[in-house]
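Obj: model holo form, ligand = zinc ion.
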Amino acid sequence: MTATADALRDLHTLHQRAKALRDRLTSGPKTLAARTAALAARTADLEKVRKALQDAQLGVKKSEHSMQAAQAKIDDLKVKLNLVKKNDEYKAIQNQIAHDKTAMGKHEDDVLNGFEVVEARKAELAAAEAEVGKFAEEVAALKKTLDDQAVSQKAQLAELEAAIVSAEDHIPADQREQYRRTVRQLGADALAPVEGGACLGCYTAVTPQMLNELINRDGLTFCKSCGRLLYLAEGEGDPVAKPKPKARSRAKG
Ligand SMILES: [Zn+2]
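Output (holo C-alpha cells):
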C-alpha cells in the first residue's frame, strides 16, 4: 500500500478523533475531582455551622443554670430577710437581693438572646444541609454519567486505535520510525494538510520539490519547518487544475 493523500487524510482524522476521545476521557475525571473537592469543602463548612449551633445551645443552657442559681440565691436571701432582727442587716440583705435581681435580669436576657441565636443557627444549618445534599446528588449524578460515558468512550477509543494501526499500513516501512517519532512528539497534530502551497500546521510554504513529492507520492514528506507529516488537501495539486467557481473568486475579490 502507498501513502496516498486520501490514506494520510484518513489517518489524520483517526488520530484527531482518538485525541478528542482521550481528552474527554481525561477531562471528565478532572471535573469530577474538582467537584468532589468542592463538596468536601462544603461538607466541612457544614460541620462548622453544626458546631456553631451546638455552641449556641450550650450557651443557652449555661445562662439557664446561672438564672436558676441566681433565683435560688434570691429565694434564700428572702428567707433570711424574714429572720433578721437588726435594721442594718435587713438593709444589707435587701441590697444583696436587688443586686442579685439585676444579675438575674441579665441572665434572663442572655437566655432569650441565646434562643434567638439557636433558631438562627438551626435555620442556617437546615439551609446548608439542603444545599450540600443537593450538591452531593449532583456530584453523584455526574460520576454516574461519566462512568457510563467512559465505558462507551473506551470502546470507541479501542476501535479507533485498531483503525489507526490498520491505517498505518500505508506508511512505508523505511519511514515508519520517523512517523512514530512525530506522533510521539505531536500526537494528533503529527500530520498536516498542504493547502495553497503551505503546511497548514505552521503556515510555512512548501518548496516546489516537496509539492512534487506530495503529488508523485514517493514516500512520506515531512514539513521542514514544523516536522509534520504532510499530505495534500482535497483538490490540492491535482494534475489538471480545476477551474475555480466564479462565486468564490468574486467573494474573495
Ligand atoms: Zn509545517
